[in-house]
Known about the structure:
By secondary structure, this protein is of the alpha+beta class. The protein has 10 helices and 22 strands. Strands 14, 15, 16, 17, 18, 19 and 20 form a 7-stranded antiparallel β-sheet that branches. β8 (209-211) and β9 (216-219) form a beta hairpin.
Amino acid sequence: MMACWVSGLLLLMGLSIATSFNPGCRIRITERGLTMIQYEGLKFVAEEVENITILDLSGKEGPFHYSISGVKITQLNISNATLSFQHDAGLLFEMKKASISITFQRKMMYWLFQDIGQINASAEGVNIWTLLHLSKSNSGQMKISKVSCKASIARMNARFNGNFRGFYEMFSTILTTGLRFLINQQICPTLEHSALVLLNSLLETVPVRTDVDQYIGIDYSLFSNPDVKSDWMDVDFKGTFYPIGNETDMLSNTASIPHLKSKDHMVYISLSKHFFDSAMYSYYKAGSLKAEIPESKMPTDLAYLLRTTFFGAIILSSKSSAKDAPLQLNLEVTSVPHCTIKPSGNTISVSTHMNIMLMPPNSTPVTLTSIIMEIKLNAKVALKGKNLAITLGIRRFRMFSTKSTLESLVAPMKALLQLTIMPIINERALKGVQIPLPEGINLINEMVTNHMGFLSIGADLHFYKGLREVINKNLLHLSPNNETLSKAK
């Protein structure tokens, strides 16, 4: 019994490996893109450090009693801060020889003398080293899994004023040493919380599985951990579609993995042939690649031509009502369409079966003839914001039938498809599908380039919302069961 159980487990493991996916979508962030992220990220870091809560400090030294309260960081100088790729790890945030401006309230007593007021201080030689380790979460999203942090403050200066200025400066070392210790102890915990909770809440806005329409959905779960090099980072997504209601029925991905060398844009999105093939596979499996065209939707000349062509069959019909019955064309895709991506362009090949029918009222439909149609479509891909859309047009149209008289129908049928079916298909295709980017980020200056077996889209990043705005919105949805929040606690 145990041997059977082990054998079954090994078989399942083997199947899992055999049916594993290659990435259908790869997003590359270049150094130019990281520069834009740095610009937004450093503003966020400055806000986080400036919001550090410092505990009150009190003590005495002989007859000298002091207390410090209401410590506020008013400004963090981030001019020397950098964000860079850390090979095989993640993102490295460094700040060297920075300064922090601080204010706090003082209350000092020496024997019978007492003084209360505000003190302006500054921390000099602030060095922060923070490494954000990136990985794939259990839910398939990218996350910051660990934060390595070191922080130090070289010195702190306090500027006293008032009648006892000279006297207090004698004790400034006592005050600034304690304050420097308190601030230094808070920097790394603050940055760790900001990364593990706040920034991860932003990454969680990237969809994993989402419906495209009523027929299909798309799986954008990460294929593996992010691949970080010294001057770029690649994030591989499954990028595969599935029919709604049968989410496990996915087309196996045997397409080649997209590879890029360009670095001119901030971001590159590579979509393999599988990305498009799996969408058509899912529509086919969902049973949505069929249409009925009643006579009322046909051009008048086509309806007349059909009746003329099949006049004999209509008259000889055993149903007396068939002669005046309306016509109907029933179209159905007979096999999974497939796309071809070449440097010269994109095409989609479709095989369709069409029945030309008479629809007598209150009676069984009469099939006049069946036609096989082979259609090749041009496919133009465009990206606006996060929306990937496709425009389709008929490139080649062929009909096959045992009736030679149907040759006269080729041009009218092609016109029918262009006027009736293609607008319906393009209405859906132009709605497109969302590219997996966090909320608050869009893409601009898009440029689509075809390669052999995949296409790439170079674009620049545009933050239409600030990090703080998006994070505050998503923090409202964090719960105790949230993976990121629970680990941060």
